[in-house]
């Protein structure tokens, strides 16, 4: 079994650094999943409070008690949890910072696409930083939690995430998307977690100093709050 990456251990939950390439749950032809790995090694009562795509690495919360799983899952659904992701993509985006919004609809073969309508929009705020060699680092703040939201958001900018075969990203060793920081200000279970940036991504970042270490303090757009309340 691969080495476990535990960021926070608490009687009611576990916060882990999910590896890229491991699915959330066991699938046909695959014996191991994130959940089964930690259930077998730590606690067979562990259950996920949210999910990450198979290719995405980073902060993931696994609950140990019914009360925690229920309340934490509700917090994700009601947007109480603050999340920040990092991604690397090649090419020139339509814009280098701002907000990406629109309704997401199913496309072919399990993919999604972004529309211009805003009935129940997916909302993502972002900043980006040049890395050289035609690549940019994206700091992403999803305000909603739609399937494939961040991958579709960058695709809509004309710059699919490197390693994202589904959405046409440049070939890479893995999907260059990482759930970097997460915080939940709850009176009983306050938590803040940071997952180290993977080496596969750091290899493209010549100057790590360009990465804001306190992303919550950046001047994120305020106008999105009204859309997020819909």
Automatic annotation (TrEMBL):
Domain Pseudouridine synthase RsuA/RluA-like positions: 12-155
A molecular function (GO) held by this record is: pseudouridine synthase activity
The biological processes this protein is annotated with in GO are:
enzyme-directed rRNA pseudouridine synthesis
Cite the PROSITE patterns for this sequence: PSI_RLU
Q: What domain of life?
A: Bacteria
Q: Which family does it belong to?
A: Belongs to the pseudouridine synthase RluA family.
Q: Which PANTHER family match?
A: MITOCHONDRIAL RNA PSEUDOURIDINE SYNTHASE, RNA PSEUDOURIDYLATE SYNTHASE DOMAIN-CONTAINING PROTEIN 1
What is this protein's record name? Pseudouridine synthase RsuA/RluA-like domain-containing protein
């Amino acid at each position: 079994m691969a080495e476990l990456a535990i960021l926070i251990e608490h009687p009611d939950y576990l916060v882990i650094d999910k590896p890229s390439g491991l699915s959330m749950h066991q699938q046909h032809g695959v014996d191991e999943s994130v959940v089964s790995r930690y259930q077998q090694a730590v606690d067979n009562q562990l259950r996920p409070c949210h999910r990450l795509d198979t290719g995405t690495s980073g902060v993931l919360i696994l609950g140990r008690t019914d009360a925690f799983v229920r309340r934490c899952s509700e917090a994700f659904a009601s947007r109480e949890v603050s999340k920040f992701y990092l991604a690397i993509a090649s090419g020139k985006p339509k814009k280098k910072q701002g907000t990406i919004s629109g309704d997401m609809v199913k496309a072919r073969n399990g993919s999604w696409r972004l529309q211009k309508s805003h009935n129940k929009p997916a909302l993502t705020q972002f900043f980006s930083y040049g890395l050289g060699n035609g690549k940019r680092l994206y700091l992403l703040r999803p305000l909603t939690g739609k399937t494939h939201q961040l991958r579709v958001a960058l695709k809509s900018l004309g710059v699919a995430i490197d390693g994202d075969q589904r959405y046409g990203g440049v070939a890479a060793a893995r999907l260059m998307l990482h759930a970097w920081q997460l915080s939940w200000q709850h009176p009983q279970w306050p938590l803040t977690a940071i997952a180290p940036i993977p080496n596969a991504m750091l290899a493209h970042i010549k100057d790590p100093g360009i990465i804001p270490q306190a992303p919550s303090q950046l001047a994120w757009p305020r106008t999105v709050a009204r859309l997020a309340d819909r």
